[in-house]
Each structure stands twice: as structure tokens, then as C-alpha cells.
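Exercise 7. Given the components listed, write out the predicted structure of the assembled complex. Treat all entries as one system.
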Amino acid sequence: MNKDARYLEILQHRQPFVSSNVSDPKDHIFPDVPSINEKVYHCVIDLIRMKSQNPSVPIAALILGEAGYGKTHLINRLIRTVDSHHDLTYRVAYIQPIEDPAQTYSYLLREIVTNLFYPIKNNYPPTIMHGILAELIKEVLIKSTFSDPMLKEKVHKILQNNPVDIFYELDPKMSLWLNVEKKLKKMYSNVCPPVFFQILMQLRFNDRLFAIIEWLKCNTLDADMAKMLRIKPDHLSSISATEQASRDMIKTLSTLIGICNHPLLVCFDRLENLDSNDKVQSFGRMVEFLVDDARAMMPVAFCRGDLWNNILKHKFNTHVSERLESNTFELLGCDVNQALELIASRLTWAYGNSNHNFQPFDRNMLEEIFSNRLRNTRYIIQKANKLLRHLIMPIEIKPVSTQLKSNFCAYFQKVLDEFDRYAPERSRFRRALRLFFEIKDFSVDIQFGDKYIDFGFSQNIQTAKKGIVIIDVENHHRAVGASIKRGIDFLDKNPQACALYFRDERSLLPSRWLSTNAALAQFKSKGGHVLILDRNEAAQCFAITLMHYAIKEGDVSVETQDIDMRNASIDEFLHFLYENILHEPFTLFKKMADILNLRKKIGKKGKVDPTPTPKPKPKNQTILNKTIECLRPQPMMMASTDNILAYLSDNDIQTNIDNLMRLIQRFNDRFVIHRSKTETIIMIKKEWMNAQP
Amino acid sequence: MTNIEQLIIKLFDDQGKDYLNLNQLKKQSQIRKLLQLTEEMDNTKIKKTLLPHLENELRVTHGYKGLYVTRNISDADLIISSIRKKPRSLGKLKLFFPVKTNKLMKMVAQMIMDGQLCVEFTETCVINLSINENKPEKHEKISQNEVDIQPTNDRQKMKKAYDHVGGGRSFVRIHAMRDYLNWPRKRFDQTLEELTRELAIQLHFGDPSVLTQKQLEDSYVDDEGQVCITITWRDV
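Answer.
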């Protein structure tokens, strides 16, 4: 085997350019190229340093960059380097877009706590919170006197090597712990409530971790959990009371982080998903609150430039936009040297050494390709992938739907792998379930009922169907009872309708909740459906929601027939769901379809066409030809669907918008669909500009 | 142009106006009849009825006294046109103007700074506005044969357009710059391509769904067939 063939064989099995997206900023698969966006990175580090030295100074930042310029990658770099600065240690919280603006602060608190309980290292149990608390404990223990010299030696050894091991190497029932708790309460009595340290110090008991997290998230605890943590059981609180409690908790956490002098960078990514004014305002409130009231936390928003400058900025009040814009940085495209460095680093990752001299590529050719313009990192990786695909034969391009399925499976597997970090989250489940109803042609009413009902749905195809969805993640019997009661009331008023009650199996109803269980039995007897989400089903919901965010951000790429890569569109994602949602691995949705009698109808339609380039029927061929004929003379070779339909009609071709769109979507090797503000625009693809239809 | 658009434009021309409050529009018998407007209809309903009849000549805006139908020219041109017709105080301009007061104030301040408007203070602290006739018009009408004559100059002009349209911000929309410069398409695209090759600017794809068809057409398609929506100028 010659040298080139050997290179290609390696690259076939270890493809370095297959992924151009950073779906999760905590992934560390490919090597980082420090020279790309180096300036912005150092500017952010300088801000964190300033925050660390002057915690009372309000600081926020805004990072602007279009899709593919490395926004999520920059967060990834900031996470990778948390401990690599000699004079600075900071922590990073990655906040997904908010879904329920009524619970702004509760949501922010949940996301911050989830991030604080992320492991310091992979496959290593201590979390960031363990690390923060260990710093405080270290301070106390170093000054303490010990009656047992053996114990003193052991403790000092642990503190010297790795303070966080204190939680795992000392007996959790030792009296030493109570002394430390007492001293911490006394030392910080003016800034943190005593109960805060009482709860946190129980991190030494592994079995109490879940209860501690729930308490920190201000979730209502049931009697058992409260007893375990040695506190009084909670009463059910109103939304506004929970919001206030969440604000207070964030402030307390901020104080704790401030004491350790490890500023928390709170990164808000994927702002494209703030798709309503309420969500935008909610985001604004979070930023304002963090800047003004949680001084050890520093909010940084990552946003597309055009979206920020021309849309989002105008929706915020000046307090928010001015706070963020006071430190604005722009991500830059790569010049030829950076492009080459990026390609070289990926090749080095594949070969395991850097002596490849860009094999199997020709360096001059790469220079020629990337020297004429500043390019974003995603483009460079996609271009390299295309070049490589030409060298690796045979090339089998899978249909977009199949590629999205592989993408989905990766998200799904990732959630399963880290399932403990995906606690039942009502808003994420809601988005996944809403998508199911919407792609199945139901209208969804999110204003339906009160806070216990997530949404109503209705459909008038063939037979009228309507119902409600209740997603219950509460751990308090009163809240659970109230949700079930809404279902029973709805079924009393609408005996023919459908009521679906969802609950995560991680929080099953205890058998001793007699009246709540009786209410659930009554709900079932009236025709209500109880769907307990198992691990796989909950993971499906999370994966759908996360992938939906990523698609909106332009963070999911698919390979096209001409071995190019482009961002998958929302339409394609919905189409993928439509085709697959009743098949493996979507077991939850299969169950729902059975309840709603949707399976037969869909079963006939929902078959995937495996042929990548379908051959159109004669009439459709005429429509396609005429569409191309219509588009070619237009400026930028694009026209609205209305204009195309009018052109077809003038040429005596009768069709409708649905059929036209179906054809355009099916032959997406020829056309690009742009949803403009006012209409749907069809554009001929570059490759078809001159080709004969 | 639709019949309704023709009618409204004629109304504007006859009355020497560039905009009309939707309540006033409702009072025009011919339009009321054509759009089947009733007395009970509020501005939002009128807007809903009117919008399908508007193509390129008119748009609906939100101003001091609610909703207006306005000539489809930029807000800056509306201000210029309004003051040119009748120089007036800022307070009077604000009343009945089809642009929200906040935005209007910012624009007027910028136009004063750019030298497009003159400002005079009276003894009673009233701010009178008038057009600065010494300032050359921002739009240049340059014929096709002038293309390529002054390439360096064109780059400077494009930078000026970038600064003006973006108001000091980056990610400036290409369609707005094209509109501002009003150059022949070839001249604009050539300058853009040269600047791109020189790495002086970055082209960005952005999200086309936030643009209208006209704005999309006035953006730029690169050598890869991708629609570029905004540019950023690179400080070297």
C-alpha cells in the first residue's frame, strides 16, 4: 500500500472533518486552534480577571458572530481553560434558552444549579459545587485545632493534595463535620442564611445529593426529602413566591462563589430561540438581575450579529442593551493561515501525529481556496470535508432525513450518557410534545387553562379531536393533586376529549400518598391517560428539544448530493420528525399516536423514499422546468412562490402551493427555500443556474 | 401597483403628503368602499384589511398617533421630505409623524450631526428644523459608464455608507447599503467583491427569514451561491 492510500485509509475510519458543529460546549472531541478568535477570548478572560479582582463592578459582555463563526466553540474554549490561568480560576454555566417566561428566576436558578453540579472532570464524582465548598472548608480546617494528631495529619494531607477529596475520604458521620458547619455558619452569618451551610455540608452524604440539588433549585420538597436534610417540609408556594425565593437563592449562591473568588461566567447561547417578546423580556430580566444583584456572576450573551443589531437590541430596554453592549466583541473569520492551521489540527487528530504535511491535500491548493476571503470555521471544515469526500470512494450520500436521524441519535445517546444531569424539566418536555402535536396537524393552544395545564390541542381532520396535555414534574403531593384535578375537571366537562398526564419515572408517586393516588385512579377511570416517561422516553424529549434549538441556531449541518454541506432547515427537521416520530426510537410518540388513533393514517403515508435523487412524474417535471424558467431571469434568480404560481398559471399549468412546495422540498438539490419576512422565496441553486432542467 | 396603492398615492400627490393616519384613510369614501371599511373598525383591523393590497409603493408604520400608511421611502427621507415641504419645530414635527417619537428623536439628532438638518433655537426655547441646502444629497446618481472610473474612491464611499447605515455598528445589512448608495448593481457588487478579496470586509449569511423579498433581492449572492445579508468592516 502506498503512502497516500495509507493516509486515506486512516481518514476513512477516523474522519476529521465530519463534524463542523459544537452541539455541546462541554464536548472536547476535536483539538482547539487557539489563534482563531484569540483576541476575543483574551478580552473575555481580561473581563473575568477584572470581575475576580473587583467583584462589585457590574460587568456583562456580548459576543457577536454569525452561524459558524465559533460562538459555542468559544464557550467550549472558556470551559477547557477554567484552571489554566496562573492568576485566575473561574467557572462557566451554560444556559439553554428559556421556554417559560413566567418562571424567569426559577429557570435561571435551575440552570445555574445544574451547571454547578457538573463534574469537575469526566468520570470523577466531585462537582463544581463540591470544589467551591471544599475551598471554604479548607480555610476552616487549616485554622482548626485537632485533638487527634492522626486525623490532623490525614486532613492536612488531603487538603494539600486535593481539597475536594475531603468529602470522600473522611467518615461523613465524624463530629468534625458538625464543627466545620458551625464555624462556617458563624463566619458567614451576615451574608448567607445558616440553613444554606446546613444543607450544603450534607454533600458528604452521596445519597442526599438529589435532595440537596432540589432544595437549591427551590423546588418544593416532600416530607421524606425534608426529613433527610433535617429541615421542615415545604408548603406549596405560588409562582411569585418561588420566583422571589429563586432570586434570593441566586444571590446567596453568588455570595458563596464570591467568597471563593471564582467568578461564574453565565453564558447565554442560542438567542435565536427567544421567539416571543415575553422570552426576550425574560432574558433581559435575567441579565439585569445578574449584573446588578449577583455580583460574582458575569452574564455573557452569544448572539448572531444581524439578529442583535437589527432585531433583538430594539426589543430590550436600554438598561439591558447598554449593560451587554458595554463590552461587545465580534468573532472574526479566518484568514488563510488560520484556515490551514485548523485543517492541520484536525489531520493531526486523525493521524495521531503532526508530520502529515496536509496529506492527502495539496497545501498550495488549500492556500488558493482559502486566500481570497475571510471564512468562518464551519465553512473551512465543510470545505475540507468535501475535498476529502472526493478522495475517499465510494461516496454514498444519505438522504437528509437519514442524516438528521443519525444526528438525532447522537443527541439522544449524549442525553442517555449524562442522564443524571437532565433532571425532569417541564419546559423541555413541553417543547418536544408540542412539536409532536404540531407536525401531526393539531392546533396547539398554549394559553389553555391555568398553570397546571401545559397546552390544549385540537384537530378537525376527518373526526374532531381535542384534549389537554399536563406535564407534572412536581414532588409535592398538593401540586401533583392539583394537576390531576385539572385533568379530572376537564374530562368531566369534555367526556369525549383526551387528557394526557405525563410524569417522569424518576419521580413516581409514593404509595403512601393515598388521596393523590386515588385521584390518579379516578382520572384514569374517566378515560384520562397516564404516561410515565422512562429513561429512553425522557431522553427522547430532551434530544428533540436540544436538536430543535441547534437547528434554529444553524448548528446542524447535512451533506448534499454534490458533496457539499449546508445547515439543515427547520422544515427538514420537522419533516424528519414527521417521517420518524412513530418509529424506533420514539416509543413515547408511538404510544401517544395509539391513544390518539393516528397510527393507521400515518402508517400509509410515512414511508421514507430511499432514493437520493427521485425522478419526477411528467407533470411534475413540467412544473420543475417552468419554475426554473421562471426563476432564471429574476434578480438573484429568486422569486416568491406567489409569483411562481402566477407564472405557472400563465403557462396553463395548474397546481397549488402545497404541491409546489412539496416538489421544491423534494428536489432540494436544485432549489433553496428562503422564508423571508413576508413570503416564501425560492432560489435556484448555484449548480442549476446554467444546467438544463 | 395595486388599485388601492394607486388611489392612495394619488391622494398623497393631491394633498402634498407622504403619509396618512389610518383613521383619516377611513374617511376617504372611495377607499372605504373598495376596502369595505366600516365605522367600527379600529386601526388594527384597517391595517389587516389594507396590508394585502400593499406591494412596493406603500407601507404601514407606527407613529405618534397610532398607525399610518406611508410612502415606501426610508424614515430619513420622510423627515427630509416633510421638513422640505414645511420647515417646522421639532415639537410640531413629532405630532402626527408616522415614526415613533423615540426613534424620530434619535434620527433627527443624527441628521443634525451629519449636517443634513439645520437647527435654530427661538427665544421661547422652541427648536426649529430646516434643511441644510449646502449639504450635498446623500444619493448619487451615477451612470453605468462611470463604473470602474474611481475604484479607490468607491471603496471609500462604501465605507462611508457602511458607517452611515450602520450608525457605528457592525453587521450592516447589504440591502440598506445598496439602497443608500443607489449605485448600479454591477458597480456595487464589484466594489463589494474587491473589498472581500482584500479581506477588508467579511460577508455574512445571516437569517433570510427576517428580510422581505425586496430586501433579499437587494442583498448579495457570493461565488458559492449563498445569500449574504450583512457585512462587517474589518479593522486592520
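Discussion: Chain A has 29 helices and 15 strands. Chain A touches chain B through 39 residues (CB under 8 Å).
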